[in-house]
Give the backbone structure.
Amino acid sequence: MSGQAFVLSIIAMSLTFALIMGVLDRLTKWKSKRRLSDDEQQQLDELWSISERLERRLSALETILDADARPRSK
């Protein structure tokens, strides 16, 4: 009976070790995939550039509208 208990305890420890290693492997893969791919980074840079251009345009429009809204002296 003690031989069977020893074998069962070895199997239980091996399964526990395998489960822990599997979880750690998945966590490592998950963390590495959290980064942006090159294509995603390029798209993000492009969107950032577009947003900066739009911000400059909006600022120019606000300046024009502010100038038009000022009362003109006659």
Summary: The chain has two domains: 1-35, 36-74.
